[in-house]
Structures are given as structure tokens and as C-alpha cells.
Amino acid sequence: MKKLFTFAAGLLLASTMGMAQPDAKEFVSMQMERFQKEMKMTAEQTPKFEAALTASFEKMMKSFQDGAGDMEAMQATMKKNEEETAKVIKTIVSEEQYKKYEEVRAAMRAEFQQ
Questions:
Q1: Which of 1-5, 13-17, 19-23, 92-96 has the lowest mean pLDDT?
Q2: Alpha carbon distances (Å) from 57 to 11, 21, 53, 95
Q3: Which uninterrupted H or E stretch holds 76?
Q4: The whole model's pTM is what?
Q5: Rg, C-alpha atoms of the chain
Q6: Buried b (16+ CB within 10 A) or exposed e, 22-49
Q7: Tell me, what DSSP letter sits at residue 10?
Q8: Are the C-beta atoms of residues 49 and 43 closer than 8 Å to each other?
Q9: What does the angle CA 6 – CA 47 – CA 104 come to, to the nearest 5 degrees?
Q10: Alpha-carbon span 83 to 29, nearest angstrom
Q11: Which of 71, 72, 34 is nearest to 53 (CA)?
């Protein structure tokens, strides 16, 4: 969570320094490639899952803009967003796929920390 927050804070810093904000489609597309491969989603699940990730990313970016400078508030908002996203994803995928989703998320976080 701490590293995800650091990443998110970096995105916010980049956006406030006049750099381009990360594109939601590009960010989600990169994640979707990995999730689809690892979770073996069906054609029916894929657009629903992608919509959930997109909504989550957009909420995350909004929380950075709204809470700029208030790290505690941003962390709380991000945690709530993650919980809401998890609930939605659980309704889209099987129990086995959800376990794989959690594994992939953990691996992505570990890779980012390096």
C-alpha cells in the first residue's frame, strides 16, 4: 500500500509540475494484458473487468487532485477505492480468478517497489 501510494504521489507530482498525466486507457491497457493472461478471463468478463479498472484509476487520479498535499486523506481515499474495486471485481470473476487477481496485484506491487 505504501509503495502504491508513493507511485500515486509521483503521478500527482508529475501532473502538478506540468507533465502529462498518465492516460487512463494506456494505464488500464497495460494492466489488462497481464490480468487477462494470468486470470484467463472470458470474453464476457473482460469488458466488465476493464471498466472496473478504468473507474478505479479515474477515482485514484481524482483523489490526488482533490487531496493534493493531504497525504492522510489521499491514503484513506485510495484504501476505500481499492475496497470498492475489489467488491466489484468479485462480482465479475470466479473465486479462483479472484485469488489469481490478488496474486497478480501483489506481484505488480513488488515489481514496482524494485
A1: 13-17
A2: 12, 12, 6, 23
A3: helix 71-92
A4: 0.74
A5: 14
A6: eebeebbeebbeebeeebebeeebeeeb
A7: H
A8: no
A9: 40
A10: 21
A11: 34
pLDDT digits (tens, 9 = 90+) for 72-101: 877 888 889 999 999 999 999 999 999 999
Q: State which amino acid sits at residue 71.
A: M
Type of residue found at 103:
E
Residues 4 and 47: their CA atoms lie apart, in Å, by 24
- Residue closest to 91 by CA, chosen among 34, 38, 52, 54: 52
Question: Closest by alpha carbon to 106, among 82, 84, 87, 80?
Answer: 82
User: For 28-80, what is each residue's pLDDT tens digit?
Assistant: 898 999 999 999 999 999 999 999 999 998 888 887 777 667 788 778 888 89
In eight-state DSSP terms, residue 17 is T
